[in-house]
């Protein structure tokens, strides 16, 4: 199984993980590491290194980050060089994570990365007349 490390500024990572667990329950090898205001880049790097060690039995790791070029992205990118099968994805969103978490069994890192990028892009929508019409024709109870 491929491990997922979610990281980002503030409580971005723990917020996403909280939502994931509310919707689909606790998931094995899916962890959040927040980069909080008072933390240094060294603190973040150490937390990421420790999580990588915990994921040694995984077939690879994908780092999901909030924004390209930020400290969580840079630290993940540098550390990914030490993990043979790893990728770093920025612009992470909840639909992207849900899609790949529920369908990562027996999948390679590269296949999961491609699915994540596709799901992330496909999930970005604007509430429009087309969506309003679709909503009228179905009953929505939420998740």
CATH class: Alpha Beta
Could you state the order of secondary-structure elements as H and E? EHEHEHEHHH
What's the architecture in CATH terms?
3-Layer(aba) Sandwich
General shape: globular
CATH superfamily: Phosphotransferase system, mannose-type IIA component
General description of the model:
The structure is a single chain. With 143 residues, this protein is of the alpha/beta class. It has a single domain (3-136), classed as Rossmann fold (3-Layer(aba) Sandwich), CATH 3.40.50. It is built from six helices and four strands. The chain has helices at 12-24, 41-54, 71-80, 94-102, 109-122, 129-136, and strands spanning 3-9, 30-35, 61-65, 86-89. The chain has a four-stranded parallel β-sheet, with helices on both faces. Helix 4 packs antiparallel against helix 5 (109-122). It is globular. The protein starts with a strand and ends in a 7-residue tail after the last helix.
């Amino acid at each position: 199984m491929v491990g997922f490390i979610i990281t980002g500024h503030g409580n971005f990572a723990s917020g996403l993980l909280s939502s994931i667990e509310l919707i689909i329950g606790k998931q094995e090898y899916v962890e959040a590491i927040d980069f909080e205001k008072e933390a240094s880049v060294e603190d973040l790097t150490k937390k990421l290194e420790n999580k990588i060690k915990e994921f040694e039995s995984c077939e690879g790791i994908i780092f999901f980050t909030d924004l390209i070029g930020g400290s969580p992205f840079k630290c993940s990118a540098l550390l990914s060089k030490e993990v043979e099968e790893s990728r770093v994805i920025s612009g992470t969103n909840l639909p992207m994570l849900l899609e790949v978490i529920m369908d990562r069994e027996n999948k390679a890192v590269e296949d999961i990365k491609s699915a994540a990028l596709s799901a992330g892009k496909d999930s970005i929508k604007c509430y429009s007349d087309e969506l309003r019409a679709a909503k009228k024709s179905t009953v929505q109870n939420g998740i």
